[in-house]
Design goal:
By secondary structure, this protein is of the alpha+beta class. About 35% of the residues lie in helices and about 30% in strands. The two termini are about 20 Å apart.
Amino acid sequence: MIEPDLRAFLEGGLGIHVGTRTSRLEPNGARVELVQQVNPTIEDLTSRRTDVSDREGDYPTGAWSDETRDYHVSIEVPAREIGEEMLAGRIKLVVGDEVVSEARIRAVWTDDAARSTRINRELAHYTGQAQFASAIDEAYDARRSGDLDRATKLFGTAVSIAHEIGDTHRLQDLAKVVDIEDAATGTVVLKPNVDALDDLALEVDSIKTNRLPPAPG
């Protein structure tokens, strides 16, 4: 329902080639749960909020030019009756001190299970990559602390996620760090000796994302 507005919102910023950009959220009777950049890298902006007013908050996205970036925003709204709708908030693109584009976020209550449980294809794609990055980060933390059982489990989780989203590149990188016995179930064995460069490449690359290819047909 908000897709056309958000597409216009993003396209509205493409003509501005340089400058520090900010996503400004103005929730309306709602609570912001998550603001996260998901492409070209995963970066959680939620805790970086700077209050602009009692309702508005800025989330810095840094300086960028005419590339495309993708963001995931989650807002919690209070319960209402079936069929009701509300303006949950507004999201604005700010360059310097100027608001250059704006989109409204609308919430609609429904008892249609097909509509309420359907996950956006792009969101599912990026959510999988975010889960992969988190598993890799925790796996390396566990291995550094000497908790090899937990590290093995988390590397296995990363393998199963990569298998599920069809990311053969990451599976190849993981195979340099663990022996993959069953990718679907995430059954792996830690390699006793791993090249430091392979470790570094996997850890750094885990936060990078790729865009979802167009749907067939």
